[in-house]
Design a protein that fits this description.
This protein is an alpha+beta fold and 172 residues long. It contains five helices and seven strands.
């Protein structure tokens, strides 16, 4: 990951990469991965993370077996609610003293995941995009994830290993 301005106002790193494993949602050998790109700079930046960077804990210098795979990239924040929708929920809760009173799910909160109706475990099995995020791209073996991240913002992705010998289109 790199940028032209890699220090914040205090001389610290303005950009960060965080990654960690998640339970596989494909039933394959490899765990899903969560990838967080943080931009602490005072300007919007294009951030890059190679598969070697993401899987460094599984093998230094790109030696991790995961680096040799293709990965489906899912934007975990693609289905975030708007600020207006969040404010409407807060206002409804504040007006009645109870988040469920006065809250009309058909006008506010529609398109939100309902864990009371469908468990998270079942939602993951169903490949629900409200939980898994929207597919944005596929990263080829030894490839790089690239995202434009707003000033003092972050991008959050879930990577899912594609079966060897299959393209993204075949899996979906």
């Amino acid at each position: 990951m790199y940028s032209t301005n890699s220090a914040d106002a205090y001389g610290g790193s303005a950009i960060q990469l965080w990654s960690g494993s998640l339970e596989s949602t494909t039933g394959g050998t490899y765990s899903d991965m969560v990838v967080l790109l943080i931009n602490g700079a005072n300007e919007s930046m294009v951030l890059n993370a190679t598969l070697a960077d993401i899987f460094i804990d599984s093998g230094p210098s790109g030696t991790a077996p995961e680096v040799k795979l293709s990965w489906e990239v899912r934007d975990l924040w693609a289905n975030r609610m708007s600020e207006a929708e969040a404010q409407a929920i807060i206002d409804a809760s504040s007006a009645t003293g109870n988040a469920t009173n006065g809250y009309n799910a058909t006008t506010v909160g529609s398109g939100r995941y309902n864990a009371t109706k469908t468990s998270y475990a079942q939602g993951l099995k169903n490949n629900d995009t409200l939980l898994l995020g929207n597919v944005t791209t596929t990263v080829a073996p030894s490839g790089t994830i690239t995202a434009t991240v707003d000033s003092h913002g972050a991008a959050l992705f879930r990577l899912r290993a594609l079966p060897t010998g299959m393209s993204k289109r075949d899996e979906l």
